[in-house]
Amino acid sequence: MKLIQYRNENYYGAKEHTPLEILKYETINLGNAWMLLTSTPVEFSKSLTKRILEFVKDVEEKLEKFPDEIEWEEGSEVIDELEEIYSKLLQEVLDEINQYYGTEINYLMWLGDLDVVLWNYLDDFDDIENGLKAYKTGYLILEDVTGNLYGYSEKPVPVENGAVEKLKELRRG
What we know:
Elements: E1 4-8, H1 9-12, H2 19-29, H3 33-38, H4 46-69, H5 72-101, E2 107-111, H6 114-120, H7 126-130, E3 132-136, E4 139-144, E5 147-152, H8 162-172
Antiparallel strand pairs: 1-3, 2-5, 4-5
Helix pairs in contact: 2-5, 4-5
């Protein structure tokens, strides 16, 4: 496992989010619920895995009815109910991750290899100067083709890194 990986702060955004908010965003907004079941080092209990899959099925069924059979006033209640149930399930996932690592994960951060970040997450050369940062890796939470989601007990801070400094020097010309 690599000890240092990278991210573009301009791409990911510098705003802090709780681990629960990040997992909700990944699984709901980006549709990456499958990652919880296939790409984490944590061995999920069969009952938790079954409940996550049942929840996803339940959401799909309710959303199929949403436009036609659910009034908008009721729709917000349905969405709130689903979000509350899902938040509880994701909290159980986080609790299991904490138990697995024997620590409390308070921060999550996506990091990737330098070439992956340069290729996929830099919009322009200013991102090298202002956004590209190196971090020590934390506890592995999720894996993806373009990076890894790491968990940290303490807030991660960028580290000095020769590769980042060299790219900045090249950029300055």
